[in-house]
């Protein structure tokens, strides 16, 4: 191959191959292709990078433009059939990405035959897979499984090639891979009973985003169903001991419900044990209403980044105050509360025993202090006292007891707190009954 590089490109051409490869890896696919024509050296570096990640190659947030994605996958599979799979670069592929809507039998991964090619290449030992990202969309909707109202049923078949891939990954020990594959899994806005505990190699999942029971929005799930959800999550976490990042999302639009936390205590104790065993977890995110507003989950010991965006009670804040968060360096707080019952009354889920409600019988936003905090390890804090629901003295205590927070952040939060207090004072003077 004759070089088309100009005289000013000699410096780049003389860089070590590792540096050039690292630069090329940061480029988009469409920007890597022209490098194949620069010279033989660039071709030998860029070609493996071009194949390193196999996916739809079109970065769009929703399925607004599926045709562009389908064209790429269809064309890739057709080219493999035309010139032969061995003439392609599948042996350079290390990572697979399945975006939203790309797992079902009707998807282009399956219809094009591309997933069959990938499965065959992995089984033949030609594709040494290292990483796989899944968006685990509603498997019932996309025909990945059949289910009753309580139990999913997954059946591997010639048509269900995504389950074939999962079966191959689950048997990774027989594939002679350099290391076991790392899986990143997202499951959002789906009923919890469709999570495929028995289908995935749980020990391979390093990053997990899972949403639970978004459809029980207003009713409050029965106790037995809530316990089953807790048990399922516990089973997942007991298997995913290699997790480094975990995001759990509960019910977004929860209102007051009939379930006291005491009826969940046995299942919740086992759930906490499962969290404690996540020794490699460094990032934890908890959002919306997770089983009960008074449920406080103690983060695993090595969590450095913690985002708490739950719907919580006053009792939750008491437990927060007692937790040392030993190694948490960055705390993101955007907590909310459940102000009303289904019939419009004041929520009884403010506390464990209702005593707090006796003090706040007419308040949607009760004002209270927590007095002290155990947390001392923070280097960075992200919150907004005017937007999110906090105890009155929380921000002051966090700044006082965490000297590692930079002064610029301290000044910013002092200004925000002063502004919030001024707003609340003005509101109190103009409408005394509201605050």
Automatic annotation (TrEMBL):
Q: What PROSITE patterns does the database record attribute to this sequence?
A: FBOX
Residue ranges of every copy of the F-box domain listed in the record: 9-54
Extract the InterPro entries matched here.
F-box-like_dom_sf (IPR036047), F-box_dom (IPR001810)
The domain of life is Eukaryota
What taxonomic classification does the UniProt entry list for its organism?
A: Eukaryota, Fungi, Dikarya, Ascomycota, Pezizomycotina
Recorded protein name is F-box domain-containing protein
């Amino acid at each position: 191959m004759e070089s088309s590089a100009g005289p000013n490109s000699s410096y780049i051409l003389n860089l070590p191959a590792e540096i050039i490869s690292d630069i090329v890896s940061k480029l988009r696919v469409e920007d890597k292709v022209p490098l194949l024509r620069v010279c033989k050296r660039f071709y030998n570096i860029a070609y493996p990078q071009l194949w390193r990640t196999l996916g739809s190659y079109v970065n769009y947030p929703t399925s607004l433009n599926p045709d562009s994605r389908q064209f790429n996958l269809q064309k890739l599979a057709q080219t493999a059939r035309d010139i032969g799979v061995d003439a392609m670069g599948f042996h350079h592929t290390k990572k697979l990405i399945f975006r939203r809507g790309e797992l079902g039998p009707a998807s282009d991964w399956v219809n094009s035959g591309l997933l069959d090619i990938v499965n065959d290449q992995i089984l033949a030992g030609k594709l040494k897979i290292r990483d796989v990202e899944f968006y685990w969309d509603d498997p019932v909707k996309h025909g990945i499984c059949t289910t009753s109202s309580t139990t999913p049923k997954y059946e591997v078949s010639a048509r269900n090639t995504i389950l074939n891939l999962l079966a191959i990954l689950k048997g990774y020990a027989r594939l002679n891979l350099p290391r076991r594959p790392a899986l990143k899994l997202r499951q959002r806005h789906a009923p919890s009973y469709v999570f495929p505990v028995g289908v995935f190699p749980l020990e391979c999942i390093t990053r997990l985003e899972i949403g639970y029971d978004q459809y029980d929005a207003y009713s409050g799930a029965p106790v037995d169903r809530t316990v089953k959800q807790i048990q399922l999550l516990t089973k997942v976490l007991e298997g995913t001991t290699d997790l480094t990042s975990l995001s759990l999302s509960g019910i977004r639009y929860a209102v007051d419900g009939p379930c006291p936390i005491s009826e969940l205590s046995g299942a919740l104790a086992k759930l906490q044990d499962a969290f404690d065993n996540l020794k490699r977890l460094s990032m934890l995110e908890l959002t919306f209403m997770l089983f009960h507003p008074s449920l406080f989950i103690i983060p695993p010991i090595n969590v450095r980044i913690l985002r708490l965006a739950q719907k919580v009670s006053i009792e939750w804040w008491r437990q927060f105050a007692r937790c040392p968060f030993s190694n948490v360096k960055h705390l993101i707080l955007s907590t909310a509360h459940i102000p009303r019952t289904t019939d419009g009354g004041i929520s009884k889920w403010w506390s464990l025993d209702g005593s707090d409600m006796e003090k706040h019988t007419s308040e949607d936003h009760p004002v209270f202090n927590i007095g002290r905090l155990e947390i001392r390890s923070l280097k960075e804090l992200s919150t907004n006292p005017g937007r999110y629901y906090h105890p009155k003295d929380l921000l002051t205590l966090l700044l006082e007891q965490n000297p590692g927070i930079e002064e610029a952040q301290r000044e910013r939060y002092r200004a925000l707190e002063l502004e919030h207090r001024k707003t609340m004072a003005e509101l109190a003077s103009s409408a005394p009954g509201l605050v």
